[in-house]
Design brief:
The chain is mostly helical and 352 residues long. The protein has 2 domains: 133 residues, Cytochrome Bc1 Complex, Chain D, domain 2 (Orthogonal Bundle), CATH 1.10.760; 133 residues, Cytochrome c-like domain (Cytochrome Bc1 Complex, Chain D, domain 2, Orthogonal Bundle), CATH 1.10.760. 38% of the residues lie in helices and 2% in strands. The protein binds heme C (2 copies). One heme C binds next to helix 11.
């Protein structure tokens, strides 16, 4: 009797030890693959931030007069109150036209290896020049943007302050640089998962830890890891099994359109999974509305696995721990329109 009691307590102690071992093993495995989102922006190559540059960038981000219609700003499709996205399958831009792809969030985008679903812009400054000119987005021209900015004396003064010593500070490039420094401040630190990475074992519930374990064991981290839990490489969507043509429309061949390399057919940048619980609908086509369904699609399309309901639910529970503190951004007061400001053009005209 006494012996069996000793044996039993020994077994219980060992059981507890092995549980603790598995737990810290999961933490160590995670720390080796992921990093927390920092609370302050990283330094930008060739574009040092300053308070006046970030402030100008914030105004330009909310500035609808950068668009031909004077209606559409970056905020229209990357709403800072909606986790930096727009809740549309694919974005709606100039003249109510539907674009071909879903708008990714701008939050933490500074940590992505390159910008856009196909990585065609190398950084946020290069990226910012795209939407202003895209006919289905803001449908404007650099010349018209410069004319608009020069017609608003406050902007002329703010560009001079943000780019001191430059003879002609009001340029299209400087517009993009100012927006880049502002976007770099749109970070979401302090997610439960980041607190876990910092060593707080209680930051995740047991179910969320099970989900994290599955996420690692099934191979999700192979394409979604690092600080952004994604955004670091290009992979064919449908690596194991092609998803339905509704989710992967045949006409959008992804990175192939940028590189013309056959192996890039239907390759897309793995998106960041930061705040993914807030940025439905999912995939570049925006055809999947629930995170649970998106996780199941990933299992079959990327890993050739059928995740059962419980597994998919646990992984989804883990993904909700990637929601961080949302940035609180004050809407700027924009300069008053002058007589010289170009008037809104609502139709696309002949030139685009
Ligand atoms: C009409 C909607 C619309 C407007 C306006 C718009 N965007 Fe976008 N944005 C999109 C879409 C759609 C994509 C994805 C396009 C693609 O990948 O081909 C995108 C992609 C991006 C990305 C890349 C994010 C990533 O993870 O790859 C950034 C950054 C971005 N936009 C910033 C901006 C800025 C800055 C402005 C204002 C100058 C702006 N956008 C205006 C719809 C819009
Ligand atoms: C081989 C690489 C690869 C693997 C493995 C992988 N993914 Fe993905 N993931 C991608 C790519 C690429 C996309 C973008 C697909 C598209 O829309 O074109 C994506 C998209 C997603 C999305 C949609 C995000 C959004 O904002 O639209 C989620 C969610 C996701 N993956 C979760 C997972 C989970 C969970 C696993 C494991 C079960 C996983 N992924 C495994 C490459 C991968």
């Amino acid at each position: 009797m006494k012996n069996s009691c000793i044996l039993l307590s020994l077994a219980m102690v060992m059981f507890c030890f092995s549980l603790a071992g598995a737990e810290s093993g999961l933490l160590q495995q995670s720390q080796a693959r992921f990093q927390a989102v920092p609370a302050t922006p990283p330094a930008l190559e060739g574009n040092p931030a300053s308070t006046s540059k970030v402030e100008l960038g914030r105004m330009l981000y909310f500035e609808p007069r950068l668009s031909a219609s004077n209606l559409i700003s970056c905020q229209t499709c990357h709403n800072v109150g909606l986790a930096g996205a727009d809740l549309q399958e694919t974005s709606v831009g100039h003249g109510w036209q539907k674009g071909p792809r879903n708008a990714p969030t701008v939050f933490n985008a500074v940590f992505n290896k390159a910008q856009f679903w196909d990585g065609r812009a190398k950084d946020l400054a290069e990226q910012a020049k795209g939407p202003v000119q895209a006919s289905v987005e803001m449908n404007n021209t650099p010349e018209k943007v410069i004319e608009t900015l020069n017609s608003l004396p406050l902007y002329v003064a703010l560009f001079a302050k943000a780019f001191p010593g430059e003879k002609q500070p009001v340029t299209f490039d400087n517009m993009a640089k100012a927006i880049e420094t502002f976007e770099a401040t749109l970070l979401t630190p302090n997610a439960p998962f980041d607190r876990y990475l910092g060593g707080d074992e209680n930051a995740l519930t047991p179910a969320q830890k099970d989900g994290l374990q599955l996420y690692l064991d099934k191979g999700c981290a192979g394409c979604h890891s690092g600080v952004n839990i994604g955004g670091e490489g290009y992979y064919p969507f449908g690596l194991a099994e092609k998803p339905h043509s509704d989710i992967l429309p045949p006409e959008d061949t992804g990175r192939f359109m940028v590189t013309q390399t056959p192996s890039d057919q239907y390759s897309f940048r793995s998106p960041s999974l930061r705040n993914v619980a807030l940025t439905m609908p999912y995939f570049h086509s925006g055809k999947v509305w629930t995170l649970l369904d998106a996780v199941k699609v990933m299992g079959s399309s990327q890993l050739g696995l059928t995740l059962n309901e419980v597994e998919a639910k646990q992984i989804t529970d883990f993904l909700t721990t990637l929601t961080g503190d949302q940035p609180r951004v004050e809407h700027p007061v924009l300069p008053a329109t002058s007589d010289a400001t170009p008037r809104p053009v609502l139709t696309s005209g002949g030139s685009h």
